[in-house]
Amino acid sequence: MRILILGTGGMANQHAKHFAAIEGVTLAGGVDVDPARVEAFCTTHNIERGFGSLDAALAWGEFDAIANVTPDSVHYPTTMAALKAGKHVFCEKPLATDHAKAMEMTEAAEAAGLVNMVNLTYRNVSQLQKMREIVQSGAIGKVKHFEASYLQSWLVSKAWGDWRTESQWLWRLSKKHGSNGVLGDIGVHILDFAAYGAGSDFSKVFCRLETFEKAENNRIGEYDLDANDSFAMTAQLENGALGVIHATRWATGHFNELRLRVYGELGSVEVQHRHDWSKLVTCLGADAETGTWTDVEVDVVPTNYMRFVDAVRAGKNQEPSFRHATNIQKVLDLATTTDRDRMEHSV
Ligand SMILES: NC(=O)c1ccc[n+]([C@@H]2O[C@H](COP(=O)([O-])OP(=O)(O)OC[C@H]3O[C@@H](n4cnc5c(N)ncnc54)[C@H](O)[C@@H]3O)[C@@H](O)[C@H]2O)c1
To answer: Is CATH 3.90.320.10 the classification given to domain 2-121?
Structure first.
């Protein structure tokens, strides 16, 4: 199977590494509008062909699928072009910048019978997959309450580079550059994490977004720093559970940390995931009386990259699909609406 990597910035290195490690997969080419970047990327990953545009790569055409690792606002036009050319697409999150575009991408992929998946990375966390299994087995009973958070600190710390000078961070702070802020960037991950772990989709949401002053006139060069960098949400799931979800880029001491706690009528389960470790604990049955928590061992699960390759080989789509990401996009759009209206809305 031959994969083209579209967009050769930071995250593309993960795609190249993971896809290249799968037996029988070849990295057929790299594409970027920045010639120096695509050249360096192709050298690093031993890729024969580099292109300056998707059109040029499609004119050549000798690949089966595209890994779309462009900035958020570029996903829609490039994915639509790839689907039109009959290529399967593994797209980075968020699928699009709004629900209408995400739905168009879903319908185009489904009508063409092409494999379409979105890289909701935290599906790769074995502890999350196990949590869902525990919840769905009925071991914690009916789910009543949940708490989910996604904490990053790159607006405070330079551990990942300096957002004041690097384009890969600046576009994430600017609406004009297609970003929906922390909500679109990592909100999409934590919404998927919470709903997947708690075993139910969203029914109602209310969200508050905040954009803090970060520079003189809140502008650096061509970038207006107007995209939100902190949000707090209350949500209800279709299974009736009520919960809170929040995310921020201001959480000093937390580079990249997701946590989900799910409470049922018979017990609780909690997953914590950081870049360097993950943990799953439960409090079930008689342990409810003593508040005792037990570590749960888990088996490694296949990554989204592996499952995308399996899906293309089998000609059968897998989750997380474009349609699933489109449903999450609806919740993201609603979050912005509820912030404007200062009132809860049904999904
Ligand atoms: N799943 C995850 O955990 C995860 C993590 C990081 C980033 N991402 C997503 O990956 C995507 C890329 O993020 P990044 O951090 O690599 O950004 P980045 O800015 O480092 O890289 C994006 C690259 O795309 C190129 N590009 C822009 N327009 C293009 C076009 N029309 N054709 C070809 N190339 C084009 C840019 O020149 C740049 O090199 C984003 O959608 C982001 O949300 C996902």
So the answer is: no
Return the CATH architecture of domain 124-346.
2-Layer Sandwich (3.30)
pTM of the model: 0.94
The CA 117 to ligand 1 mean position distance, Å, reads 16
Is the CB–ligand 1 distance for residue 39 below 6 Å? no
pLDDT in tens, 138-163: 999 999 999 999 999 999 999 999 99
CA distance 343 to 317: 37
Mean pLDDT computed over every residue of the chain: 97
- The boundaries of every CATH 3.30.360.10 domain in the chain are 124-346
Reference 5, options 67, 64, 58; nearest CA is: 67
CB atoms inside a 10 Å sphere around CB 144: 16
Q: What type of residue is 257?
A: E
| Both tokens assigned to 184 | 């679109």
Longest dimension (CA), the chain: 66
CA of 334 to the centre of ligand 1 (A): 25
| Closest protein CA for atom 40 of ligand 1 | 71
Centroid of chain to Cα 72:
11
Tens digits of per-residue pLDDT, 15-47?
999 999 999 999 999 999 999 999 999 999 999
